[in-house]
Design a protein that fits this description.
The chain is an alpha/beta fold and about 290 residues long. The chain folds into 2 domains: about 90 residues, Rossmann fold (3-Layer(aba) Sandwich), CATH 3.40.50.10860; about 120 residues, 3-Layer(aba) Sandwich (Rossmann fold). Helix content is about 40%, strand content about 15%. It is built from 10 helices and 11 strands. Helix 1 runs parallel beside helix 10, helix 2 packs across helix 10 and helix 6 crosses helix 10. It is globular and about 50 Å long.
């Protein structure tokens, strides 16, 4: 049976350092603050938001919620982003995506102040990820994958890694983070031919397709490490990932559960980013 790569342990380790940062900021009269901007009532977004709020508040980080119906006008959402940009008491913004298709996602992302983009959604942040410059913040979920591997001392350098999913939210950023750590990375997607054969070659398999059923038992082999980044809420309220856990767990050597895996670490990474953004703002006198 596979080792379960629990996100709780990783999150607790990150949380200790983050809490120290919060205490240091508060002693200087700075209360780190995260704004969460959500459009609509997508169950996955709500689940992530609840986790982020619990994590931040448990560490002493203030959270302000900006909720809008899925019929919100573009100009109202633009005004909310501008309000967040202007408010010096807000150090970070989490914009839950994808947005409804009628909204201009690119315009909203571009409008967000880069120094408050702690989930790596602006072009400037992504440029830092792809160039390896270290500027800005990586997307939290992509960075969470790295934190899990590092915590459990799973080597990355020289490993054959397959990433299933090519979105700018997870797939491509995590591929770049792995590449910067000297992995040999293959990026697959729903139109990749012979995907099962490619996945079986992986020593580390990161599944971030955002769709259930893209990988099945034919994609796994003994000895693999599987990171399941997907999150889906069923009609019964049960949360599952992209991977059929019951198929993968008997075959592979280690796997992240859903829930309790990458998602738990993602909110811990977000909290750490909020603190870093507040520290940068404080050093700049903002």
């Amino acid at each position: 049976m596979a080792q379960w790569l629990s996100g709780k342990q990783v999150a607790e380790a990150l949380g200790t350092e983050t809490a120290e940062g919060v205490s240091s900021l508060i002693s200087r009269g700075i209360l780190p603050c995260l704004a969460i901007l959500r459009v609509g009532d997508d169950p996955g977004d709500q689940s992530y938001e609840r986790g982020a709020v619990r994590r931040c508040e448990s560490l002493g980080i203030n959270v302000r919620l900006f909720h809008f119906p899925d019929t919100v006008a573009q100009e109202i959402l633009d005004a909310a982003v501008e309000e967040i940009n202007r408010d010096e008491s807000i150090h970070s913004c989490l914009l839950l995506r994808p947005l409804p298709p009628y909204l201009d996602d690119e315009a909203i992302r571009s409008a967000l102040a880069p120094e408050k983009d702690t989930d790596g959604i602006t072009d400037g942040s992504l440029a830092g990820v792809f160039s390896g410059s270290g500027r800005g913040f990586a997307p939290c979920t992509a960075e969470a994958c790295i934190k899990v591997l590092e915590h459990y001392k799973i080597g990355i350098e020289g490993k054959n890694v397959v990433v299933v999913g090519r979105s700018l939210v997870i797939g491509r950023p995590v591929a770049m983070l792995l590449l910067h750590r000297h992995a040999t990375v293959t990026l697959c997607h729903t139109r990749t031919k012979n995907i099962a054969e490619i996945c079986r070659q992986a020593e580390i398999l990161v599944v971030a397709a955002g769709r259930q059923g893209v990988v099945d038992s034919s994609c796994f082999r003994p000895g693999q490490v599987v990171l399941d980044v997907g999150i889906h809420v069923g009609a019964d309220g049960k949360i599952t990932g992209d991977v059929d856990f019951s198929q993968a767990e008997p075959l592979v050597s280690a796997i992240t559960p859903v829930p309790g895996g990458i998602g738990a670490v993602t909110t811990a990474v977000l909290a750490a980013h909020v603190v870093k953004a507040a520290e940068i703002a404080g050093a700049a006198g903002r």
